[in-house]
Amino acid sequence: MKLIVTDDYDDMSRIASHHVLGYLTQNRRVNLAITAGRTPVKLYEDLISAIGGYDCYSHVHYYNFDEVAFKGQSREGVTISNLRKLFLSPAKIKETNIHKLTDDNFLDFDRQLQQDGGLDLMLMGLGSDGHFCGNIPGLTRFHHSVVKLPLEGNIAEFIALTEMNGDMQSVPDHYVTMGPMSVMAAKNLLLIVSGENKAWALAQVIEGEVTEQIPASVLKLHPSLLIIADSASAAQLSAESLQRYVQSPV
Amino acid sequence: MKLIVTDDYDDMSRIASHHVLGYLTQNRRVNLAITAGRTPVKLYEDLISAIGGYDCYSHVHYYNFDEVAFKGQSREGVTISNLRKLFLSPAKIKETNIHKLTDDNFLDFDRQLQQDGGLDLMLMGLGSDGHFCGNIPGLTRFHHSVVKLPLEGNIAEFIALTEMNGDMQSVPDHYVTMGPMSVMAAKNLLLIVSGENKAWALAQVIEGEVTEQIPASVLKLHPSLLIIADSASAAQLSAESLQRYVQSPV
Amino acid sequence: MKLIVTDDYDDMSRIASHHVLGYLTQNRRVNLAITAGRTPVKLYEDLISAIGGYDCYSHVHYYNFDEVAFKGQSREGVTISNLRKLFLSPAKIKETNIHKLTDDNFLDFDRQLQQDGGLDLMLMGLGSDGHFCGNIPGLTRFHHSVVKLPLEGNIAEFIALTEMNGDMQSVPDHYVTMGPMSVMAAKNLLLIVSGENKAWALAQVIEGEVTEQIPASVLKLHPSLLIIADSASAAQLSAESLQRYVQSPV
Amino acid sequence: MKLIVTDDYDDMSRIASHHVLGYLTQNRRVNLAITAGRTPVKLYEDLISAIGGYDCYSHVHYYNFDEVAFKGQSREGVTISNLRKLFLSPAKIKETNIHKLTDDNFLDFDRQLQQDGGLDLMLMGLGSDGHFCGNIPGLTRFHHSVVKLPLEGNIAEFIALTEMNGDMQSVPDHYVTMGPMSVMAAKNLLLIVSGENKAWALAQVIEGEVTEQIPASVLKLHPSLLIIADSASAAQLSAESLQRYVQSPV
C-alpha cells in the first residue's frame, strides 16, 4: 500500500489522472475497470482534456465493475450509462473497446477477464460507509467473485432518487458487482478519496482491522494498492500511517 | 488463484521445485521467503540436486518468515536452524544471501524487505488447522504486518517436543512472524500442500469464506497465488473448484 | 546480458531446463519459440522427464521460428517435424498449443504473435558461424522481420543430406525465418551453447562488434538475454568477460 | 516498436509527458535517464506544471546519459547543468535523487545502474544526423557500453558556441556517453521527435537498415521502444510504416 495525500480535490484528480495516463500510453493492450460516481468527475475531465481526441490510446479497453439494470426496460444500465456520460462518450472511446458487465454475463465475467489478459488497473472510489464497487457492509463477503446481490431498502430508494427520477418501478430487486475475490485479482488497484465525509472510512481502511463490515478494508491486502486522497479525507490518519505509507524515496 | 493437482507427494515436490527453479534462474536479483516443516523436505532435496553446487544462483536471496528463539541461549532460532539443515547448508547458500527475521529486527523487517525490492516469491505450507507461516487461528488478525505473538499452550509444548528435546525451559513466551499484511505484499505466493490430513484445510482455503479462524483463507485474495497440492490433500475439493482453478489453456 | 558457464553439456542442458521450467509453471498464458538442432536434445529430454505427462502446463504455447518446406510435398516442414520428434510429441503437447510458422503465414506471423501477447521466451542455439534461427552470415540484415530467404549452395546441400535423405529434389529454393527485428521483440532470450566448435562464435557474440557477418552478435543488445554455455564453448572468453557477465550477486 | 504521431510539437510534448507521468506515479523506485536539448523543453514544462511541487514523486531517480566537462573548471558538466535548468531545479528534485554520469565514474556507471535495479525508462531525442545520446555517426559502435569518445571538429565548435560562450579553451578533447549496449539494456525506451529537419532521420530509423552510420537505427531492435513524433517529423514515413507501427487496438 502506498498513499499520496494532496492539498485538495483538484490536485487529487490531477495526480490520479497522471497515474491513469501512464496506463493509457503503454505500448501494449491495457484493461481498465473504471468507476462512476462523483469522486472521479474532475479526474475524467482531466483525462478527456489530456487525451484530446487522439486515438493513440485505442489499445486501451474499458470495463465497468458493477451494474444496476433499469427494470423492465431495454436501455443500458445505470453504471455504464454514467460512465458514457462522464468519460467514454466525450473521450470518444470506440464501442469495441467497451466491455460491459451486465445481468446477463456476470457469471462468465471473471472467465472473460482472464481470457482478455486480466485487469491491469481498477480505478475505484470509497464510500463513506467503507464500501467499494458494489461491495456493501452487510451484504458483501470477501470470498465473493462476480456476484448478484439484493437491491433494497435505503440503497434502492437512493438509486431511484438519483438515477431514475424517483421512479421506484424502475428499480430492480438486485444488482451485479465484482466482489472482493474478483477485484483483488486485478494486477493494480487505484483508490481515489476526497472530502471530510470519507475521513472515517479512509482511516478504517488504512489503520483498522480487515472486516467485512468495512469492505474496503480488504484492499490493503493487495500487493499493489495506490491510494490518492485529498487532505480533507486524510484528516483522521495518524502520524504513524502518514510516515509509513506516504510515497517516499527508497 | 491457480491450482495444480499432482498424483502424490513426490510429484508435488518435483513440480514445485520446477516453479522455484524458474525464480533461481532469472537474470536479476530475486528475493525468496521459504518455509521449514515437513512438506518441503523433498522439494528441497530436488532443488539441491538440481542446483548441484553451481553458484550461478548467487543472485538469489533467502528470508525466513517466522522465528522462535531458544530462550536464554545465544544460538540461532528454530526456523532458521531448520532451514539451514533442510536447504541452505546443503545448497551451499552464501551467508550474504541469507536474511534472518529475528526477535531483534522484526519491527524493521517490512521496511528492509521493501528496500531490498520486495519479495518475489513466498513458499509456504498449509497447516491442518488452516494456519500459514506463524498465522494461527485465534491469534492472527488479517491486518497484522510483521508481528510478535504469544507462544503458549499446546503449541509451546509441541515446539518443546519437536524442536527442543522436550525442554520447556528453552521455549520463549513469544514468537515472531510475517502477518497476513506482509505476506500478501509479496509479488507471488506458492502454497504447497500434501496429505489427507490437509484435505479439510485446503477445501476451506479454496472454497470457504475468508475468515481469521482459517488464516490461510485470505491467501485466495492474492492476485498471484499458485497452489500445488497432491491428490490426497485435494480429495475434498468439489468438481466445480477443480474445473475453475486447475491450470488450463487460456 | 547474463552468462552461466557450466562444466559440460549435461549441466548446460539441466540448468537450461530449469530456466524453461520456470516459464512452464507460470500461472498465465506463456508463449515460447523453441529450437530444433542437436544442442537442445538433452534439454528436451530433461524437460520431458520433468513434465512427466502432467497437463498442468497446458497454458504454454509453442512456436517454431524458422521453417524449410519439403518441395512439392504436402507434409509438414523440416523444423516443425524435428520439434515434434524432439519434444512436442513425447511431451504430449496438444495440437491447439502448437503454432506453426510456414511459407503460407510468414508475412502475418509478427502480427499473430503480437495478438497472442508476444513471445515470453525464445530458446535458441548458436551456429559455429555465428548464425541464430535462420539468420545466416551473408543473407541476414538486422532490420529483417519474419522473412523469406533463398536456400542454396552448401546450406541447401546440407539440408538435403541431413533432413531429406540426400534428395535435392525435395529442397525448396527458399526458407522462412524470424529475422533479428522479430527475435529481438521477444520479452526474453535464452541462448544455449555447447562444444569447442562454438567457442569462436561465442567469443565473437559476447566480445566482438555487432555485425551482420556474425548475426548472433546482435543478441547482446537485448535487455534480457541469458546465455548458458558449457566450458568447452566458453573457452575463448576473456577473464574480463567472465567477470563482467557471469551471474553474480547484486 | 510503437509509434504515436501527433499534430504538432505541443501535442508531442503533452503526450510524452503523459507517458513519463505514468512512471512518476508508480508505487516503487523508478530510475529514469533523461535528455537535455531543445526537443524536450515543452515536455519538461508540462511535467513541472503537472508535478506542481508535490514530493509524492520522491521515489523517482534521475540519471544523465552523456556529459561534456568544462575543461580546467571545477563546475558541473554541460548536460547535467542543462538538465538542472530545464527540469531538475524547477521541479525541485532532491539532490539524493540525482545520479550524475561524469568523466570520473563512467567506467563504473553500468555496474552502478545494475545495482540500482536498472533503468526503467530512457527518454531520448533524435539528431537530424541520426544520433541519439552521444552516439554519433562515425564514432559510435553498437557494442559500446558507457564510453569516452573524442570531441573535435564541428561538434567541438558547436559545443563551444552553444554551451560555452564561444570559448574553445573550455572545450575538452573528449566526452562520455552511454553507448548502444548500455542504452539497449534499459527496460523501456521513449524517443521524442519533432520538426521537419528530423524527418529524414526518423524515416531511416523506422524503415532503413540497422547501421552504425545512423546510430538510432539500432533502437528499433529494442522490445519496448515507443516513438512519439509530431507530423512534421513523420512526413517521410511510408503509409506501410504508419499502418504497421502506429498504436492501434490489438
From TrEMBL, chains A, B, C, D:
One of its GO terms (molecular function) is isomerase activity. The keyword Cell membrane does not apply. Keywords: Isomerase. GO terms for biological process: carbohydrate metabolic process; N-acetylglucosamine metabolic process. Residues 24-220 form the Glucosamine/galactosamine-6-phosphate isomerase domain. It holds the Pfam family Glucosamine_iso. It comes from the Bacteria. This is 6-phosphogluconolactonase/Glucosamine-6-phosphate isomerase/deaminase.
